[in-house]
Amino acid sequence: MFDVTWHNGISVSAPGLNIILDPLRVTKASDYVFISHAHMDHTNAFTDSSKIKYATPETIALYEAITQKKVKNTLPCVYDKTIEHHQTTLKVIKSGHVFGSAAVQMATKDVTFLYTGDFNYVDSLMQKAISPIECDVLVIESTYGRPDYIFPERNLVYDEIVDWAARTIMEGGLPIILSYPVGKAQELTKLFNMYTSIPVVTHPSITRTNEAVNRFGQSLVYYDMAKEGEELIRSKSCVCIYPTCYRPNALRCVYPDSKIATVTGWALSFGKRSADVSFILSSHADYAQLIKFVEECKPKNVYTVHGFSEIFAHKLCKKGINARSLC
Fold first, then answer.
1. Would you kindly state where each structural domain of the chain is located, as residue ranges?
2. Residue 14 in 3-state DSSP?
3. Model confidence over 11-48: pLDDT tens digits?
4. Burial (CB count within 10 angstroms: exposed 0-12, middle 13-18, buried 19+), residue 103
5. How distant is the alpha carbon of residue 195 from its chain centre?
6. β-sheet bridge partners, residue 104
7. Which of 324, 316, 286, 315 minimizes the C-alpha distance to 96?
8. pTM to 2 decimal places
9. Boundaries of each Zn-dependent metallo-hydrolase RNA specificity domain copy (predicted)?
């Protein structure tokens, strides 16, 4: 049996194992934690050297690249390899969200549990979509768990991004894309590498994450803006990728001829804001994909977390699925 509660993260009690999944902050509730991916809102447990931390080697490497700090007391998890923990087995599978991201499947003799972490249910240039797994208990992220969040076809968005960048360069401008250093930055780098001859210039923080990804066998091509990319920026013959923490108006002061884009699923609600354009590109499943994933997992009990969790749980209940919001 799996007892699931919220304790600054998803607290799971199983025979011989108590573990917190993606804790939001350092917690004393368990000696074991699972970190699903390297986005900073999911990695607080890496700062606690006393905890035993399950994560993929890719996630560990990306976190260390972002923070430029080594983490301690980790148990690297290889995809699809079962780990025995007393009467409970644990296995991580690819979640399709970002490079290194993982869902975790746990099982006892009689019950199967699945936590999706953040996940995507369509293929991207960098990731294969998550595969549904039949389970008794499903804990699912519901970031976009509201019916109006339906994303356009990914390949069409790719075309829009490339067309916009090429047109900006032809008009004498410098295209700048604001992106998360983990996930979108690698997807965008690969997009321009595969389908254009436009050089990609990266902010140093994105250079570090791209380097970490390449150490696992990828072949992303990019130029650091503090080094060889500086001349490319002056010539305005490249596309620049900056972290999302940069403000468009501040970048325009540095690059007066720039055009600035954002890439996010939230563009469905918030539009371009102070950027020049926004593209609806998300590393999460949209509402229809969330529903489809639940139906294909055929769980007996569903817990929704994050985003529109209450709305999504209510929609599942209306479909006859036993669901409730955990947070």
1. 3-148+284-325, 154-279
2. strand
3. 999 988 999 999 988 777 788 999 999 999 999 999 99
4. buried
5. 23
6. 92, 115
7. 286
8. 0.96
9. 281-307
| Chain-centroid distance, C-alpha 276 | 24
Q: Are 36 and 22 in contact (CB under 8 A)?
A: yes
Write the pLDDT tens digit of every residue in 210-229: 999 999 999 999 999 999 99
Which tokens go with 268?
């469905």
- Domain 3-148+284-325 CATH class label: alpha beta
Burial 182-201 (b: 16+ CB within 10 A, else e): bbbbbbbbbbbbeeeebbbb
The Cα 162–Cα 196 span in angstroms is 8
Which amino acid would we find at residue 115? Answer: Y
Spatial contact of 101 and 37, defined as CB atoms under 8 Å apart:
yes
Q: How far apart are CA 263 and CA 281, in angstroms?
A: 5
Show Cβ contacts of residue 218 under 8 Å, excluding neighbours closer than 6 positions: 99, 126, 186, 190
- Kind and range of the H or E element at 107? strand 102-107
Measure the CA–CA gap between 317 and 319, rounded to whole angstroms.
Answer: 5
Q: Are 220 and 193 within 8 A, CB to CB?
A: yes
**CA distance linking residue 35 with residue 95, whole number of Å:** 12
Secondary-structure percent of the chain, ordered helix, strand, coil, rounded to 5: 30, 25, 45
Q: What is the token pair recorded at 254?
A: 């540095």
What sign results for the dihedral spanned by CA atoms 36, 39, 44, 47? Answer: positive
- Residue 177 to residue 202: CA distance in whole angstroms: 10
Report how far residue 132's alpha carbon sits from residue 93's, in angstroms, rounded to the nearest whole number: 10
Nearest Cα to Cα of residue 290 among 273, 309, 263: 309
**Residue bearing tokens 């599978």:** 93
Q: Token pair for residue 322?
A: 């036993």
Burial class of residue 211 in the structure, from the number of CB atoms within 10 Å of its CB (0-12 exposed, 13-18 middle, 19+ buried): middle
